[in-house]
């Protein structure tokens, strides 16, 4: 006899993403859908109608997590080709490369990953490559993504050097490895597993230009049981200008709930620490507001052309000058009842002017925020950089997530993975507690969010970002059953201790895609 529910999840701490509070309650799931969400404890009749019942006592049950700025194609590079992580000299390096080349029967470019500059000299490694591979391009990427060892043939073909070894430069190699189905299937499967283990059920991926064939792979995966991570993707023009024809094709090709095209992405300014962030007023002890030229006219033309055809943009901005100029561009876009029709977004928003945040909130803009960004450096280094670049007075507006929330901006969580790897516990530590590594006292606690606000940013905020809030983002009847379960009640955990939390179960479409042993008690 078929049961009414495929699963019932009962929890003492259920955060549905609608309320700011957690409460005791349960979910009745049938297939991919939540068909009931009730308060209290399920009665015997409900339990008897379920194929499976899971009880969670101390854990927090919440909606699945959305990371709105990830970069799988950049992440994959650091697992590409031969593993040279243990190489200490040219002899062992050449031996590993030759063995890999023979095993893979590689006739094209030769790649490697995991190079450790402290173990193996870059200069010596390059000399070896020139002698052993004068006509074959070879690139060995550093484990910390800082540089690479490459021969002259690789520089000639791919047009970058070890000093410019970052994705916007090495995009020309992507078509090679993204169409290596053996590599990419294994890599994407492991990537999905990693994200599910962190409670992530949806990502918004950045793909350069036409994604170099990766969209074909996604189409193959779209209706497969092997897909357990919703993947919405954007085109980031790097090798060519914005391609609206490609966007139209992708919009028509992907119309389901698992894979969709989500518009365009672009960097505007750069890091403030390197004086590449665009400021409204000059840097401390300098006469300039930005050390690089930013083609705002070109950006505005692309945004308005895309907006006219119903496509959205995400623009990356760190300085208050860049944020302000983007606000002016977005203000020219189509609106419905005063709100942006196409849900344009800003990514990062490290240093902002409160007046611009109010303007962006009024027009219904979306923010994609790196809630863990403070983890990249010790607190003393971060504060020193702020003081040196913009000074203590302007520094009051650094990471001002509180003002963004209060201004009505739709907040969503992002990582720029592999820059950061999605972690809600870390996000709570840094962006709710205001803590920095190595410092006891919080940094500008007045700019932080509540835990409930942060959880909503990582869930319903992310789904609003990609236009899926009617189907995902909260635990309500009629929505798809994307669910994350943490090992403790994050809403009652002191932010200083939140880093210790972990995911015990993740579901997508009503299917368990990750579980940690012995955390859920089965009924």
Textual characterization of the structure:
With 523 residues, this protein is α/β, with parallel strands linked by helices. Helices cover 31% and strands 23% of the residues. The protein has 18 helices and 23 strands. It has an 8-stranded parallel beta sheet. Strands 3-2-1-4-23 form a 5-stranded mixed beta sheet, with no helix packed on it. Helix 11 (296-308) packs parallel to helix 12 (320-330) and helix 17 crosses helix 18. The two termini are 18 Å apart. The relative contact order is 0.14.
Which percent range describes the beta-strand content? 15-25%
The main sheet comes to: 8 strands, parallel
For the terminal residues, how far apart are their CA atoms?
18 Å
Structural class: alpha/beta
What does the average pLDDT come to? 95
Total number of beta strands: 23
Helix run count: 18
Strand order of the largest sheet: 6-11-12-13-14-17-18-19
Nearest-angstrom radius of gyration? 24 Å
The share of residues in helices is: 25-40%
Show unreliable segments.
518-523
Overall, the morphology is globular
Break the fold down into its secondary structure elements and pairings.
Elements: E1 7-14, E2 23-30, E3 33-39, H1 44-48, E4 53-56, E5 60-63, E6 65-70, H2 72-77, E7 82-83, H3 90-104, E8 110-115, H4 122-132, E9 138-142, E10 148-150, H5 152-158, H6 167-170, H7 174-178, H8 181-196, E11 200-208, H9 214-221, E12 230-236, H10 244-253, E13 259-267, H11 296-308, E14 313-317, H12 320-330, E15 335-336, E16 339-340, E17 345-348, H13 354-362, E18 366-370, H14 379-389, H15 391-394, H16 401-406, E19 410-414, H17 424-431, H18 451-465, E20 483-486, E21 503-508, E22 511-515, E23 521-522
Parallel strand pairs: 1-4, 6-11, 7-8, 8-9, 11-12, 12-13, 13-14, 14-17, 17-18, 18-19
Antiparallel strand pairs: 1-2, 2-3, 4-23, 5-20, 9-10, 15-16, 20-21, 21-22
Helix pairs in contact: 11-12, 17-18
């Amino acid at each position: 006899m078929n049961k009414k529910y495929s699963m019932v999840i009962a929890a003492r701490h259920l955060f549905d993403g609608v309320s700011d509070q957690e409460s005791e309650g349960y979910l009745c799931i049938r297939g991919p859908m939540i068909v009931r969400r009730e308060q209290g404890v399920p009665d015997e009749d409900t339990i008897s109608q379920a194929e499976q019942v899971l009880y969670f006592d101390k854990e927090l049950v919440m909606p699945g997590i959305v990371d709105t700025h990830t970069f799988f194609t950049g992440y994959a590079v650091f697992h590409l080709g031969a593993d040279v992580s243990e190489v200490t000299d040219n002899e062992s390096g050449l031996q590993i490369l030759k063995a890999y080349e023979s095993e893979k029967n590689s006739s094209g470019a030769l790649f490697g990953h995991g190079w450790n500059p402290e173990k193996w000299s870059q200069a010596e490694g390059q000399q070896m490559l020139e002698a052993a591979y004068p006509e074959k391009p070879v690139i060995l990427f550093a484990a910390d993504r800082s540089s690479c060892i490459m021969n002259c043939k690789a520089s000639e073909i791919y047009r970058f050097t070890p000093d410019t070894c970052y994705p916007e430069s090495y995009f020309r190699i992507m078509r090679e490895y993204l169409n290596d189905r053996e590599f990419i299937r294994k890599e994407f499967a492991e990537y999905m597993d990693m994200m599910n283990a962190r409670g992530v059920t949806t990502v918004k991926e950045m793909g350069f230009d036409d994604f170099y064939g990766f969209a074909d792979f996604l189409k193959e995966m779209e209706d497969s049981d092997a897909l357990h991570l919703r993947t919405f993707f954007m085109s980031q023009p790097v090798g060519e200008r914005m391609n609206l024809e490609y966007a139209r094709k992708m919009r028509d090709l992907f119309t389901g709930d698992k894979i969709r095209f989500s518009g365009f992405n672009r960097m505007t300014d750069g890091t403030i620490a390197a004086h590449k962030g665009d400021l409204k007023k000059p840097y401390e002890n300098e006469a300039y507001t930005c050390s690089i030229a930013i083609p705002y006219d070109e950006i505005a033309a692309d945004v308005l052309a895309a907006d006219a055809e119903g496509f959205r943009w995400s623009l990356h901005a760190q300085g208050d000058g860049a944020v302000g100029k983007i606000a002016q561009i977005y203000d020219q876009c189509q609106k419905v009842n005063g709100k942006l029709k196409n849900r344009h977004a800003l990514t990062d928003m490290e240093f902002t002017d409160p007046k611009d945040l109010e303007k962006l909130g009024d027009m219904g803009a979306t923010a994609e925020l790196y809630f863990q960004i403070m983890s990249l450096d010790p607190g003393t280094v971060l504060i020193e950089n702020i003081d040196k670049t913009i000074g203590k007075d302007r520094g009051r507006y650094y990471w001002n997530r509180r003002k963004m929330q209060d201004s009505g901006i739709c907040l969503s969580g992002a990582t720029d993975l592999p820059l950061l790897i999605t972690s809600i516990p870390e996000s709570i530590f840094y962006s709710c507690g205001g803590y920095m590594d190595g410092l006891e006292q919080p940094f500008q606690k007045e700019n932080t969010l509540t835990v409930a606000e942060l959880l909503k940013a990582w869930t319903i905020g992310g789904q609003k970002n990609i236009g899926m809030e009617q189907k995902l983002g909260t635990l309500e009847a009629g929505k798809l059953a994307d669910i994350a379960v943490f090992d403790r009640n994050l809403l009652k955990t002191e932010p200083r201790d939140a880093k210790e939390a972990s995911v015990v179960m993740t579901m997508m479409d009503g299917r368990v895609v990750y579980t940690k042993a012995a955390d859920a008690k089965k009924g």
